[in-house]
Structures are given as C-alpha cells and as structure tokens.
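Extended Data, panel c. Modelled sequence:
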Amino acid sequence: MARTVTTSTLLLISLLFVATAAAHAPAAAVGGRRDIKDVAANNEVQSLGRFAVAEHNRRLRRSGGVATSSDPVTVLLSFRAVAAAQEQVVAGVAYYLKVVARDDRGGGGDRPFDAVVVVKAWLKSRELVSFTPSRK
C-alpha cells in the first residue's frame, strides 16, 4: 500500500513538473509568431520576398495603377532583399516580411515595405495578403 502511494505521489510530482516547465517555455506554439533567423541566407524567405514584389507589380498593372486597401503602393518596384521575417502557423504558414525594394522610376532609393504572404504547401499555393509601406 505504501509503495502504491509513493509511486502515485512521484507520478503526480513528475506531471506537475512537466506541466510547469511547458507553461514557462518560450512561445513557439501554433498561432504564435516566430522570428526567422539569418534571413539574408534563407533562400525560401528571399524567394517569398521576390514573389511579394512581383505580385505587387502584377496587381498594380492589372488595376491600372490604382491603390487598394491591402496594397496602397502605387509605384512599380524592384526587389532588393528581405531584411527581417517572422512566421506564424495558421491555415498554412503566414510569413511577415520586411521587404526592401526600389522604385522602378529611379527615384528615392531603397525603401522598406511590410508584406504578408500565406503559403499552403499542400496546395502548392502562396498568396500575397498585404503589401504596405513600412513605418520603419
């Protein structure tokens, strides 16, 4: 009987320890954003940034240069690089990108933009959700 109580007590203490450790672990859970490290060397992230600028340009040409709420930028751009990125697991993976691009008209130099791209690998799809000037 004493052995059963001791075993049960040890099991309960172990479960409490695991639960406490899990509750204090860094947030990398489903639904939370996670920073992507070394984006300059990450070919997938750079490809998504290139896609975001190309899709922005395609939509701008299609709309005749008219801005939309999800893409208020009214100039064609040339992709330079992705400077920072985060990912979030949603119905797919949402990538929050800080894209550096240049106005194709030649004025103004490199400018930062915030782009959100959702990738659904099982459908082999990616969608530009928003493309806006970055506040910084």
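Residues 28-133 form a domain with the Nuclear Transport Factor 2; Chain: A, fold (CATH 3.10.450.10). This feature is highlighted in the accompanying rendering.
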